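Re: the 296-residue chain
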Amino acid sequence: MNKSILKYLIVFFGTALALSVSAEEVNESIDAASNGQVEIINISGSIEVYGWSRNSVEVTGDLGDKVEELILERNGDKVLVKVKVPRNSGHNIASDLTVRVPAASSLDVSAVSADINVEDVTGEQNLHTVSGDVDTEVSDNDLSAETVSGDIEVTGEGKDAETSTHTVSGDVTLFRTAGAVAAETVSGDVILDEGSFDRAALQTVNGDVIFQAELRKGGKLNVETVNGDVDVLFSSDVSAKFDVETFNGDIDNCFGPKAERTSKYAPGLELSFSVGDGDGRVVMSTLNGDMDICNK
């Protein structure tokens, strides 16, 4: 055998063996309340949470080689899942966890450098990471999802809840959520697709905002971006007073009234009008971008 090939194989299998030894597999479980609280803390790696019909919490996955231990304990109706790492240990602590919890559990998930994915959990959720994406499903309980660098995607069932999402660098996409929602990003798009709302506040600095949903009677919609377009398409008849403004862009309004110049010396456009009884409120603004307002 060629010496260079032999050397390559030795290095390859040696590396594979080292990785297999350093990664510690975990498979632990503990009894849990059917609708209790589950707190999950994992500094680095990934966190996947799945709801199931059993009254227990099961943790499987791989721990980083510098991890001290996996803590899995219950105190009353609360279960703690925590990856314990040494202080000042920045490397080799990445752990990939798959956690199965009772479907009605409430979640409190914290990470620093990890993606968070949640499916089939109907309880309240508080999901926080610094560098990573958040992808979750929600039912009729409140959700708070935050990341600094990453996308947030929320899929609902059209049931009312309080939904709050925030990222600095990433897109926010909300699909079939309902009730009240606040979605904010600094650099990224905000998309609200389907659903029915009493209140919706959508904000970005550099990105587009898309609202394709129902604004209920008396509902409030606030949309704001600095550099980006705004596209609002109401899925049913709307009754509201509108105040719309762009400094550098066009306003296309299918409800009839035309935008007017804010000043003969400046490029800005503004538009104020009412539709129906005017009992709702829609406020939209962008500094640099076009605005489209219509209904199906």
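The helical segments are 3-22.
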